[in-house]
Amino acid sequence: MTDTRAPAPSRALRRARVAVAACFFLNAVFYANLVPRLPQIKADLGLSNSSLGAALAALPLGALLAALSSAVLIRRFGSARVASTGLVLLGLALWTVAIAPNWGRSPPPCSSPGRSTR
């Protein structure tokens, strides 16, 4: 009787699988954070339905452009560095969307604890 089971994956392969799963998980977390807030973002920025739709339609276009350049970047820097940098940039972009309604406003005045504001 012959053993037909596949050999156990190596440690490097298991680590790569976990890293890919983490990338997909973080991507889902970022978008799950953005999507429920779309009505608030639309209202805060004063966007019309068509302008919000155009902004949302730009997401797949950006993904397509990123995919076209990914082969060159991966060959030059490696897949781990490109994926990590991409997730950091995505996080920064979503953070920028979160603070966008406050760009034109000045920050509130700060006071030190224990100081009188008379």
Automatic annotation (TrEMBL):
InterPro entries in UniProt: MFS (IPR011701), MFS_dom (IPR020846), MFS_trans_sf (IPR036259), MFS_Transporter (IPR051788)
Topology class, membrane: Multi-pass membrane protein
UniProtKB keywords: Membrane, Transmembrane, Transmembrane helix
Signal peptide: none
Coiled-coil segments on the chain, per record: none
Transmembrane segments: 12-32, 52-74, 86-104
Cell compartments where the protein resides: Cell membrane
Source organism superkingdom: Bacteria
SUPFAM superfamilies to which the protein is assigned, alphabetical: MFS general substrate transporter (SSF103473)
Primary residence: membrane
Keyword rRNA-binding: no
Domain Major facilitator superfamily (MFS) profile, first and last residues per copy: 16-118
PROSITE patterns: MFS
Protein name: MFS transporter
Organism, scientific name: Blastococcus brunescens
